[in-house]
Amino acid sequence: MRRLGRIGAAGLLMALAVLGGWGLHWIGEGTAIAHASEMAAESAAEATADGTKGSSSIGGDGEKAAPTAANRPVKSSGLDWDRYPVRYLINWQLYLGEEPGQDAEWQPLDEAAGKRLAEYEGTLWLKRELPALPPRDPYLFLFEFKHVEVFVDGKSVYEFNMRKPDKYMNPAAALLPVRLSPEDAGKTVAIKLLWDHKPMPSYWNNIGDRFTIFKSMIGRDWKLIVYSVIFLVSGTVSLFMFLRRRQELLYFWFTMLTYCAGIGMITLIISMQWFFPGIYRLYYFRDALLTIGVTANIGFYTVALGKEYQRTYRVLIGVMGAYSAVTVAASFIHPGFYVSLIVQWLPYIMLALFSVMTYTLARYIRHKRTRETFWLGFGYVFLLIFGFLHVLMNYFAFLQDRFQWPRLVLELSPHMLPIGILLFLFSLAMVIFGRFSEVHRQLQRYARELASKNEEMARYDQLKDDFLRNTSHELRTPLHGIAGLTESLLDGAAGPVDGHMKGNLQLILDSSNRLLRLVNDILDLYHMMHRDLKLKPEPVDPRQAAGVVAAALTPLARRKGLATHVGIPANNGLAIYADPNRLEQILYNLIGNAIRYTVEGSITVVAEPAEGGMVTVAVEDTGPGITPERMATLFQPFAAAESSSGGGTGLGLSITKQLVEMQGGTFAIGPRPGGGTRASFTLPAAPASPEESAAEGAAAALTELATLAREPAAVLPLAPAFDDARDDAAAGSESGWNSAVAPDDADAAEERIHAGQEAREIDAATAVEGSSGAPTILLVDDEPINLQVLQHFLRGEPYRLVQAKDGQEALRLLEDGEKLNLVLLDVMMPVLTGYEVCQRIRERWTPNELPIILLSARNRIVDMTQGFDAGANDYLSKPFSQGELLARVHIQLKLAQFHHSLEEQVVLRTRELEEANRILAGSVRETAEALTEVSVLEERNRIAHEMHDVVGHTLTAAIVQLEAAKKLSDRDFGKSVERLDVSKELVRKGLDEIRRAVRMLSDEGAPFDLSTALNELIQDTRDNAGVTIFYKPEPLPPLSGLTQRVIYHALMEGMTNGIRHGRCTTFAFELYAEDGWIYFDLGNDGDPYGTARPGFGLTSMMERVHLLGGSVRIGSRSGEDAGAPEGCRLAIALPLSDER
């Protein structure tokens, strides 16, 4: 592996020679040369009439046909068509011009003339006398020309791309067959060409019979066909794998690479032009495949090397991808630029790319030695080696005569590059195969682990089933006890029971019956899973069964405002052969679900005969229907418990479907025409009609149903009081469906419920009346029992309670303007879940305005998180105690009250702060004015003090000089005069200081006009300092005297500091009013403001600005104007005062 890394590093040197040859090979020049040389190898020289000796010139007597000893020139006198069936014509005459001239104007086409054609553009003529032609089907083949017309004795016999030139043309890839006749021997053949600055090719013609030439081409092209088929099949397989695993980019890059190689090999098959003459146009675009293939190669190595050098290879992909895009675009827009991109610039780009790839790959192999890196390095090195040999054997043919090459190398020389590409792609395929094998090994390991897990899960599932079965059996005994004792209490076994207590006992009975039905469902599911549920089929009237179930569920339907109909006519002759108890269980589940999920409308039960001796029974409702997402999990046990809507265990439909199928029927559920849901099942028809007694029972049930339908709806009916009362002796094997309250007693049961409800409503109303202004709490639950429990828990508190049976009704109450202080919201509700209701409430009310407490039996962290994300203030898991509920309610109401009080306090405090701020603003202005007066007095005292000190000091010095002059007058008159001159200057200086001080004092007391002062200051600065100042005055509102002086001194300090410290020569000054503020902006072109502390002048100016409530910013002007000097900027903002 270390040796392989060294070879990869050394391959960088071979890449220098490979890339140029690779590019030429793809362009097609190598194709024409190979064809011409192979054909000329079969016929080394032309059999000419004069028998002249060959030479090495283009237009002489001989030519260099191929890089083998067999191709050496031979005198034509010894040649015949049987021995040399393919010949290369020489001894051509050349003429430059539109029309051929006289014979004297023609010149031989020798090597020198061929090279001079590189400077020529225009029409070119070639002519010579045709030799003896093959006796059958002779052809003259031309290569390397884009525009050709051939004449025989002045008659046009062939034309290619001459009259309507096609710019999308690759001359190296075109095969131009000119058909001749044996009688043309001895005639003059003339070739007209449109020339465009290129030298004459070394090999550009062949002559011979068509069969021999075609056979020669096929003998060469079949290898290319094999290569292309291998590449395209590999690419197709890789494409299929990529489409199945889109995340595996390795397949994508390999597909691109193999397709580019395969299509490129197809375009090298010259013999295809025999069958598809116009295919040469496609050859024009094949050169772009080289850039795309190199991009795919880099992409493959990017994925194969993983994170190693990933950033480097992404840059390489970007560069080569952009170059490929430009190349493809240029091929359509500008053919000349397209050729330049391929021939001139691409070798340099590839040299840089492959240099980086060689270096990184060698380092990668050195540090990470695996089977995959071996194949990556193996393919890359062999690509370079075979590419290098391809260049040597095809583009430096003279080396074959100077060195003794192995025979195998000479035979494979035309196919060096295809073989190298084949080995390279084989190595990349091995990389993919290795990864695929690794994935297969991992899948086998995962399969073994999965099998082990499945066995373990099977054991756990068996334990679960046993636990459910045993637990369910143990629960049935206490539940039966609770139900029996409660029923006896309702019947007065322990004494009279008032209406309120009767209602509570009825709640206990209904709850125990509901729990018992759940236990029975679990037991049924267990027996169905173990295939030991026994059925007792017998003829059953579907009208009677539907009537019994509908009569039992009518109170619940009327509570929701729904109508129930049994649309099965009497004496219809329909009978079902099924277990009557299980049939009622099926109808209970279907009708109960329809009532639960229907908001308004009706539920109808129908039956009709079906094909094959079956009877179809359907339950139709006008509810919202079932969504496709819900339909996918509709029959999965416990799926409803996992969903966030509707509640329930999800056992009903699962058990219903299995019960129907166990009795030989089918079950279906779907949308109902016109809206709603239709659940239907088919069961075998009974061989005979049911007994007359059954018919009578059905009639009695229907009569009872009609009576119930005419009665007024109860205020709050409870869940149906029907249950699966099983025979204890046969528990687990067979069960019967009986009612804890018989259907005949349905009226009495409803009356008890109604009476109990009325009593509870009176109690609640009394509690509310006793506390005026009590908080209003909305109770939202689709289960009447749960609403009653909440009402009982909150009955003793001073709250006003409002109820809603679902989320839609709760939202309707809020939209109607109901003033609520708290919402107790159940999560598991049909149509709209508690989460959805909470989200809609939060669209209008914040958690502080209307608190929400979610109630749910689901206590997982994810459920609580979802509730809080929906906007709930609290989450209370069922079952909960009364104390816990009251504590949560009390806390939320207190928090809401505290928030409301806090908002009021914030509003009050905000008003107080605004008033204090207004007073403070006035005080600041008064303080600023006072400080201004103080500063004026201080300035006057300073000026007087300065005048006293300066003048006193100056006069003192003058007196000293006068005394000295007086003493020197007698001894040295010259020095005495000098002393007097000094005294004179001191006196003059003192007087000047006095005048300056007096002027400053007068300025302080004189009226101040800002506009005039600014103009004077700017003009004086221009005249005395020689600087340029740009200033355009703008109208200003009336300003206070202090504000005007602050602006004046700010401009003075800004310009003084800029000239003295910033070495600036240009200022730009703006002063304008906007939105109640005065904006001052002074910029210059000098040095930027440094980090040193401001001096006395700037500090004093900034203090005055801050006293007025303004702001100061000193900084750089960089980035304001492109190309402008950095400079410095002084920006001030002052508020406009109401008091001028």
TrEMBL record:
Catalyzed reactions: ATP + protein L-histidine = ADP + protein N-phospho-L-histidine
Transmembrane segments: 224-243, 250-276, 288-306, 313-333, 345-362, 374-396, 416-436
Recorded GO MF terms: 4 iron, 4 sulfur cluster binding; ATP binding; metal ion binding; phosphorelay sensor kinase activity; protein dimerization activity
Record keyword Cytoplasm present: yes
Region (Disordered): 44-75
Residue span, Histidine kinase domain: 470-687
Top-tier EC class: transferase
Function of the protein: Member of the two-component regulatory system NreB/NreC involved in the control of dissimilatory nitrate/nitrite reduction in response to oxygen. NreB functions as a direct oxygen sensor histidine kinase which is autophosphorylated, in the absence of oxygen, probably at the conserved histidine residue, and transfers its phosphate group probably to a conserved aspartate residue of NreC. NreB/NreC activates the expression of the nitrate (narGHJI) and nitrite (nir) reductase operons, as well as the putative nitrate transporter gene narT.
PANTHER family reported for this sequence: TWO-COMPONENT HISTIDINE PROTEIN KINASE
Listed name of the protein: Oxygen sensor histidine kinase NreB
Natural source organism: Paenibacillus methanolicus
